[in-house]
Amino acid sequence: MNRLHKHFDLPMVAGYSDGVNDAQATIHAMTRDIALLVYPGFQILDAAGPLSAFEAASAFVPGSYRLAVIAREAGPVSSSCGAMLLARAFDPADDIDTLVVAGGDGVDAASGCAVTVDFIGNSREARRRIASVCSGAYLLASAGLLEGRRATTHWRRSRDFAQRFPEVKLEEDRIFTRDGKVWTSAGISAGIDLALALITEDLGEAVARQVARQLVVYYRRPGGQSQFSEMAEMQRAGSRFDTLLDYVRSHLQDRLDVDELAEWACMSARHFSRCFSEEMGVTPARAVERLRVEAATAALESGCGSVQEVARTCGFGDPERMRRAFIRTLGVPPSARRRSTA
Asked: How many Å apart are CA 6 and CA 19, to the nearest integer?
């Protein structure tokens, strides 16, 4: 029985579900211990991203999280770039609510460390949640936590991961997955998406939105969204419009007409439209529509909100405009991408 069940008569707590409760501040007030496991050669952003998200959540809801960096041995642990984090030695007896395992180039060596693998494996029953960022999934799989479960990892490692762990149901094109108490995510920025999802589960949507705003990241890419983007595939390396398209992706609710985009690119509308079309192969309006359809598709496939909500958050304004855009882009209506709730 977890700590929530010990201290609350759950049927009497309105709106409570899986630790999410926007209405009851008393549940928000409990402290959850988050431990970030690192090893020599870990990826610094795999650790720093989630830690920053939980730190921001604690600023908005004081006392909600207590953070720790843990490793096999106490002391400074060097990342793949040489920067170090100071860790305490992990202990199976630690009262950890959520264990997050970082990825990085050192994961192969760490997967061969019996002490580290056993610690993670023994966390199966002892922790409320276990998560990995990027190639940290290798450690979860080595510990037997992913057998028969859905999981993801960075796309560069997908082929090798599938060969080494055929018993895992690898979803190689997902940003993050959840299967029971085990969560896995793709590389670096997806670790922040994963942390936001965990914060949402604990503290509710409103707090997670505040955290995303504080970190200046998009709130919130659903786990089912592809690691790849149609527009990213069209972009050339070093394109002058790379940052513009990143801006569009994070401001889909804005008007985003040619005049606005041209102003953002510091070009006249006519010159911008011509240059963009020549380089990208589509007009600015068509590019914006494709990005909106891409985001809406991911939201619908992940079951994130109603059709009306998705149409609004992705900048279509209303479901009918979204339907027409889907037909033009995908040849099917949004209903064809709606996740089954059966």
From this structure: 13
* Residue of 81, 113, 134, 275 with catalytic role: 134
What residues contact 194, with CB distance under 8 A and at least 6 apart? 50, 131, 133, 176, 183, 185, 223
Split at pLDDT 50, 70, 90, the class of 3 is: very low
Convert the pLDDT of each residue in 268-314 to its tens digit.
Answer: 999 999 999 988 888 999 999 989 998 888 788 766 778 999 999 99
Active site residue 134: yes
pTM of this prediction exceeds 0.85: no
Burial of 258: CB neighbours in 10 Å, binned 0-12, 13-18, 19+: middle
d(CA 100, CA 337): 31
pLDDT(2) > 50: no
d(CA 144, CA 124): 9
